[in-house]
Amino acid sequence: MAITGWEMADLVREVCLDAGAGPLMLGGALPGYRGFAAAISVGATFPYVIQGVVDPGQWEAGRGTINPGGRLVRVPHASSAGGEAVDFVAGEKHVGLALHADWVARVEGHGHGIEAIEGLAAAIAAGPAGGALTKVDDANVRLTLGGEAATALLTPASISVSWSGQLAVARGGTGAASLTGYVKGNGAAAMSASATIPASDISGLGSMAAQNASAVAIGGGTAVLSAFSLTPASGPAHAAVSAVNGQSAALSLGTGGVEMSRVERMASANSGGNAGSDFALRRMDDGGAALGTAIAISRASGAISCSASSAPVLSAARTGSNFNCCFAAQTSAGTLYFGNADGTRFAIGPNSNLAVSPYLTASATSFAIGASVETSFASGGRPLTDNGLAWGTAAYRWSTIYAASGTINTSDARAKCDVGAADAALIEAWGAVEWQRYRFVEAVAEKGEDARWHMGLVAQQVRDAIDQQLGTGAALRWGLVCHDSWEAVPAQDGVPARAAGDRWGLRYDECFALEAVWQRRAIARLEARLALLEGESGHAGG
Question: In which domain, by residue range, is 294 found?
């Protein structure tokens, strides 16, 4: 027999433009057909047929379901891929709800109408045995069961049932005249107020607030709540998340079903001495993947640590014109460390701690202050150790030092040895040194012709004058000539690269001293010649 219009009305067909061998996204009903959502209940399994339009050679038939995302999850029974899931190309294809083959066979083999079923008409006319339905009004009917006194009044509008006499329940009964306070039974035992409600019966239970909290237990699965509140009438409120030893217990905080943050009792097992079960506050990216542990607290020691691929920032500030927040390390071994990706580091703590700190080394320790920040001191400053640190380096120099008076250099006799007169050869070499005017290359590059002129010496000329008189390399044996060099530093962790280089310099105070010695010698020679000339003339002048 042909398929009637009644069967055609229930057929379903949707277009699909998705691709691949996995679940396919459906794109809506074709003209004249219904969509799957209108014909198939949630979670139902149904037969389907997929026919390619862009590629007619691709087809697949099987059983499937529609997942919460609206995709067809496929289990193929036959296909153009030899029974396997077809890797459909992108483009139009039609997905239809197929008829069961056994249903078609039964319909085709049915040879008579419903009126031909033997005895059907008589059974309908006789009605149900031992009972009778009596119309009370347009909204209610009365059912008399077995001719006994027990009757039930059915009220569809309010879904209420009332009866007279005692109600017996098959497979267990309450023996009660009323079901007040009773919920659904499990069908195998008498109903009771403490009966467990199976998951299949949860729908329609109502607001959790209307239930007895001590009788509610969720034993598995996921409870989805729009809000959760603990508000006791009196006394403290307590919420607990507990897990077995060695497993984490966590409270997840998310957005739109995606985890953003997590408060966690870590999975480290308790091992005695208050060790294990440490606390962690973790953070996730927009997709819910872990970014790192923002804060971890040791249960045993209370030590707090922050670690991540990008350095965390800890700030404490009071709004207003002043800051009065405090971080205190109140132990003899307490030290505060600060560090940046450019390699700068700063620490405050006992000198004994700084000397052995794994974070601070003589080759990598620095304290950087931003260009827009001015540092002020209300008292004097000093190095941690005497005569062991330089102010600046050959590669990183101060441009200018402003002072109310000159520097005081140590000249204590107790700090010197091998004291003696200046070498005559060195004094002689100094006579070849020329005082010159010059301008700095960097100043000319920055200011052009506005760059100012300076007077002084050129280190390489001083070096060459001394080496020519005393031999190559002799100048560097004297502290007045300085040569410093540095190795190349590659860029890493935000620290800019620095090329290798060197620089010549002079200690001008020693240059002035040698200049004074040379001038004293020159003056002494002039005075001696003058005395000689005056003696030859026979008078002392005048």
Answer: 249-305
